[in-house]
Specification:
468 residues; alpha/beta; 2 domains; six-stranded parallel barrel; 12 helices; 26% helix
């Protein structure tokens, strides 16, 4: 599909793909105990966190690489940069005080404008360090905590000790053990009982260094009767050496609380995007996820919602794009534990240039989950005869009162629909673009306006050349 590329599109793609010659005070390369100790020292951590890191490193060495999914054996853990520190040494709460070169990059990515328009707070991370973090005064006065994760370890140790890596423990898999050993910065959010944060909080993570490893940790706690809307975005430039992004996200949703977590991941083609995201929902709570995944060379991501409380709910909405040189192996997990729990999964994938999009999902209904309901819909759009889409659902039910519905479809662009649009005056390229936008609209319309527009433009740029 050849879409009309505007100067705005070109500026966005150039800003995402290009690296910048930032001055780094130092970089920590290679993986061993000294690396872990250096990172902990850089972050001025308490001894208990260093001990957790060293325990995670021991687990990492004992574990094998995952055997299912895409081949990731070419990753050389000793070639990665595990901590890259821009010369700016202190996170600022005034954007004007951020290092000018770093500030310029975030300006080009459109983050300041979004903050001015509709955000309750914003944070920015460059490589391994947070360079900016701010929350509107009226939110802070209500007890909302929004700060970088490494600072929260020191300023809110009891909360962090209670929740940190309890949902995604280091022994979960090899990359979670690695994350537990070398994680740095990220986001910490706590919303007190009954507090409504009706404007989104946002964080943006940028990886800039060659052979970079970025391991941010997001920990979100939305207490009883509270509400929060949080958006994360990330990107990285193109290099000829492999990079690794191994993110960890934990979300705790209290009784009658509502959490919407949105993520647009647009890493570069040389990046292995291997993330672990998990949330747990208490009685009458609701966890909503909206995810956009594109551009990374290999993505393995399967967010999980654990519906622990009675009448708890979860919605997961996905769009994944696999274009030239990309493998998108993504999906959703839902575990029903409480009575009358319900979940919805909607997954949309687009494949072109002979590459692969895979939906890999698990729905598990425990014996205790009486009258649980799940509806899963997986739709795949193939832009040529060589591209591949695979759906691998796994459904495990231990309660006879359960209602499960699973629907999957895969196909090329409907010729009749294309003909109809062209008969109304659109050329083939614009008609194809309209069909693609219609296909992904259930997910995109859940995003805030600025993010929805960016995701649409990025997907349209990925689709260039699909006609003919």
């Amino acid at each position: 599909m050849t879409t009309t590329t505007t100067q705005q599109d070109l500026d966005l793609r150039e800003a995402l793909d290009s690296s910048d010659d930032f001055v780094y005070s130092h970089q920590i390369k290679g993986l061993d105990e000294s690396t872990v100790r250096k990172i902990s020292e850089e972050l001025d951590e308490p001894e208990w966190m260093l001990e957790k890191r060293l325990e995670s490193l021991k687990l990492f060495y004992k574990m094998a690489l995952p055997t299912r999914g895409p081949d990731i054996s070419s990753l050389d853990f000793n070639e990665l940069v595990y901590y890259a520190s821009p010369e700016q040494r202190e996170a600022q709460n005034d954007r004007d005080l951020v290092d000018p070169a770093i500030k310029a990059k975030f300006d080009r990515l459109g983050i300041p404008e979004a903050e001015k328009r509709y955000l309750a707070g914003a944070g920015g991370q460059m490589d391994s360090e947070v360079v900016y973090h701010s929350i509107k005064k009226k939110r802070a006065e209500k007890g909302v905590i929004f700060e970088d994760m490494s600072e929260a370890v020191k300023t809110h140790p009891e909360l962090v000790k209670k929740y940190f890596m309890k949902l995604i423990p280091a022994n979960d898999h090899k990359f979670m053990a690695l994350h537990g050993a070398v994680w740095s910065w990220g986001t910490f959010i706590y919303v007190p009982p009954g507090v409504i944060v009706d404007e989104p909080l946002q964080a943006y993570f940028r990886m800039n260094s060659v052979s970079g490893g970025q391991f941010e940790h997001t920990l979100i706690i939305v207490d009883d009767d509270a509400r929060c809307d949080y958006i994360e975005g990330c990107s990285a430039p193109k290099f000829d050496k492999l990079s690794l992004h191994a993110w960890g996200v934990e979300v705790y949703v209290g009784k009658r609380a509502h959490m919407r977590y949105s993520s647009v991941e647009n890493r570069s083609i040389n990046t292995y995007n291997l993330n672990t995201k998990r949330g747990i929902v208490e009685e009458d709570g609701f966890l909503e996820r909206v995810n956009g995944n594109l551009w990374s060379g290999v993505t393995m991501l399967y967010p999980c919602s654990i519906l622990k409380g009675d009448r708890s709910r979860s919605d997961q909405l996905w769009v994944a794009v696999a274009a030239a040189g990309q493998v998108q192996d993504t999906g959703s997990k839902v575990i029903h534990i409480g009575k009358h729990t319900s979940s919805t999964i909607v997954s949309k994938s687009i494949s072109k240039d002979g590459w692969i999009a895979t939906y890999r999902g698990i729905v598990e209904v425990k014996k205790s989950a009486e009258y649980a309901v799940n509806a899963t819909e997986c739709d795949a759009l193939l832009m040529d005869d060589q591209s591949i889409s695979t759906t691998i659902p796994y459904i495990e039910v231990y309660n006879g009162t359960t209602t499960i519905a699973h629907e999957a479809s895969a196909g090329k662009v409907d010729d009749e629909m294309l003909f109809y649009l062209m008969s109304r005056g659109l050329n083939e390229e614009k008609a194809m673009a309209m069909i693609v936008n219609w296909f992904i609209s259930p997910i995109v319309r859940k995003l805030p306006l600025e993010y929805a527009g960016e995701l649409n433009r990025l997907i349209e740029m990925e689709m260039e050349g699909s006609v003919g």
